[in-house]
Amino acid sequence: MTDDAGLRQELKDLLIRRLRLPGVSPDSIDDSEPLVGGALGLDSIDLLELTLALEERYGFKIADEKPAREAFQSIATLAAFVRQRRAAAPDPGSARG
Questions:
Q1: Residue 38 buriedness (CB in 10 A; 0-12 / 13-18 / 19+)
Q2: Which of 14, 76, 82, 83 could cross-link with 31 by S-S, CB 3.0 to 4.6 Å?
Q3: CA triplet 47, 84, 41: central angle to 5 degrees?
Q4: All domains of the chain, ordered by start, with CATH?
């Protein structure tokens, strides 16, 4: 499993756990399936809950900005967004003074 595939799997698991989606397995979620308006039937409240879960899990804030909104199109776009934000995050050890 590549790092990218692992991240997508992790995001699917997080989505299922946090939103308590009964009968949904990670394998049943296509990476390119729309999160809103797709088979999952997520709405804006679900996206808010998912945003909070991502902030807690990965330690960065997600502002209401266009790139953040676009990130929630699918698992694939969300994984790309998380990768980008993690790469841009400062090293916690470098902030010591």
A1: middle
A2: 76
A3: 20
A4: 3-87 (1.10.1200.10)
